[in-house]
Amino acid sequence: MGFLLSKSMDANFRRQQEFMLHNARLQMERQILMQNQMRERQMAMQIAWSREFLKYFGTFFTVSSVGLAVGAMKRKKPFLMAPIVPLSFILAYQMDSAYGTLVYRMRGEAESIMESEHDRLDMPHGTPTFDSIEKDRRARSSLSSLLEK
């Protein structure tokens, strides 16, 4: 009788473990999907910001370029056109960021760094562990209790 009871309990225990593993897997998948959606939204906001900034900077660049060109021709001083050079680099960068392939090139470079220069990505003192976080938490909690006294 005891054998049948323990066999039934073992089966229930295994099913419960499988259920918990399945739930943990679902939770992890949901967490990954949520984080990816948040990343996508942040990137979309960055691209939208670049496009909006480009509109304002493009207008500024156009007005400045026309003004500098007119001023240079009226005063016959071609060096007045010099600020157009750095402004055009900024405009080109913003155009590439907003509508070009900058994101794809950055992603490719990031993948290259992760593959061939992974040591640059290491954190100081390594990846935090539960023990290191708990040790720090205990140190801070004992410190704060001492400060309160």
TrEMBL record:
The keyword Lipid biosynthesis does not apply. Residues 116-149 are annotated as: Disordered. Keywords: Membrane, Transmembrane, Transmembrane helix. One of its GO terms (cellular component) is plasma membrane. The chain crosses the membrane at residues 53-73, 79-104. The keyword Heme does not apply. GO terms for biological process: positive regulation of plasminogen activation. This is Uncharacterized protein. It comes from Mola mola (Ocean sunfish). The lineage of its organism: Eukaryota, Metazoa, Chordata, Craniata, Vertebrata.
